[in-house]
Amino acid sequence: MAASAEKKRFVCMGIESTAHTFGVGIVGSDGKILADARDMFRPGPGKGMVPRDLSEHHTMIAPSIIATALNGAGLEMDDVDVIAFSQGPGLPPCLNVGAALARYISIVHNIPLVGVNHPVAHIEIGKLTAGPTDPVILYLSGGNTQIIAYAEGRYRIFGETLDVAVGNAFDVVARMLGLRSPGGPEIERLAKGGSYIEAPYVVKGMDMSFSGFVTDAKRKVTEGVTPADICFSMQETCFAMLTEVTERALAHTNKTEALLVGGVAANKRMQEMLRTMCEERGARMEVVDSKYSGDCGAMIAWAGALAYKSGQKTSLRNSVILPKWRTDEIEVTWLR
Ligand code: AMP
Ligand code: MG
C-alpha cells in the first residue's frame, strides 16, 4: 500500500551501498528494527578496495540480501511503505547501485523514495540504540572522521580529519602489516601485546590529520618495529587526538553527552578513552549498539523513517547520487 505523509505507522526499507557493504534494513516508524541483512566485500590479502569490484559485488548480492531482510522481518515487498537509500557521501559506482535499486522499488511498488545522508544515518542509529538526547557525536568510520553537534536545525561539524579517515588509516596500516581486512579489529587485537613508541600526534585547531601516522608507520615497518608496538601506538595516538577534540567540542557547546558512532566505535580502547574523559567532566558517554556501528541498511531505514515522518520525500529528479554530500548540508527537520 502506498504511504502518505499523514500515515502514522509505516514500515521503511533502507538500502546502504556507499562503500564496502551492501545492506538492507527494515524498521517500523516506532524505531523497532525488524530486519538487517548485509554483506561486506573483502578484498584479497594485501589488496585495497577497488570501486568497480565493490559495485559489482553489490549488484550481484542485492537480490539475496533483499530477500533475507524481508524473510527476517516476516514481510513481503508489498508491506513496505517507504524506500530509503544512501544518497551520499560515498564512492559513485557503489552509490549508484543502491540508488538505482531504490528508484526501481519506488516506481514499481508506488511508494515514496527518501534519499538519506550516510553520516546522519550513523548518528540516528546511534541515538536510537544508545538513547542520548543531545550529544556531541564522535563519528569514526572507514571514510569519515567528524566531531558533530546539533545546532539550529543542522548537525554542525566542529572538527574533522584534514586527510584520511581514522578507519582508513587503520585499514592501510593493517594491510602494510599483512593483516586481514577489515584492519581495525586486527589492529585492536594485536595492540594488546604492544607498548608505546612515539608517533605523529597532529591536531590543528579542531581538525586532525592521520596521514602522517600512516607514513611514519611505513617507515617503522621497514625499520623492524614490531607490529604489536605499531598497533598499540596507533590506538593510543589516534584515539588521544580524537578524545582531545571531542572534549573541546563538549566545552564549547556546553553539552553533557558524548556519543560514539561509526565502524571504529566498536574499538574498546577508543570507548575507554572517551569514557575516562567524559567521567572527568561529569558528562555521559554512550556508544552505538555494536550490531549497528558499521555500515548497515537498518541505519538508512531509520534515518529515512525519521525524515519521512517529518515530511521529507525525494523526487526522482532529486535522487541523483551526491558523492560529496556533507553532514551539515542536511536540514534535520525531525528535530525541529
Ligand atoms: P564503516 O565505514 O562505518 O562501516 O566502518 C568501517 C571501519 O571501521 C573500517 O575502517 C574498519 O577497519 C573500522 N573498524 C571496525 N572495527 C574496528 C575496531 N574494533 N577498531 C578499529 N577500527 C575498527
Ligand atoms: Mg559508514
Percent of residues in beta strands? 15-25%
Ends apart, CA distance between termini: 29 Å
CATH topology of the largest domain: Nucleotidyltransferase, domain 5
Number of contiguous helices? 9
Provide mean pLDDT, rounded.
95
Strand order of the largest sheet: 3-2-1-4-5
Question: What report would you give on this structure?
Answer:
The chain has 336 residues and is of the alpha/beta class. It folds into two domains: 11-123 and 293-335, Nucleotidyltransferase, domain 5; 134-290, ATPase, nucleotide binding domain (Nucleotidyltransferase, domain 5). It has nine helices and twelve strands. The protein has helices spanning 51-73, 92-109, 118-130, 166-176, 183-191, 211-223, 227-253, 268-281, 297-309; strands at residues 11-16, 21-28, 33-40, 82-88, 113-117, 136-140, 145-151, 154-160, 203-204, 207-208, 257-261, 284-287. The strands form three sheets. A five-stranded mixed sheet has the order 3-2-1-4-5, with helices on both faces. A five-stranded mixed sheet has the order 8-7-6-11-12, with helices on both faces. Strand 11, helix 8 and strand 12 form a beta-alpha-beta unit. Helix 1 (51-73) runs parallel beside helix 2 (92-109). The longest helix is centred in the last third of the chain and has 27 residues, at 227-253. The protein is globular. 51% of the residues are buried. Residues 1-6 have low confidence and may be disordered. It binds adenosine monophosphate and magnesium ion.
Outline of this structure?
With 336 residues, this protein is an alpha/beta fold. Helix content is 42%, strand content 20%.
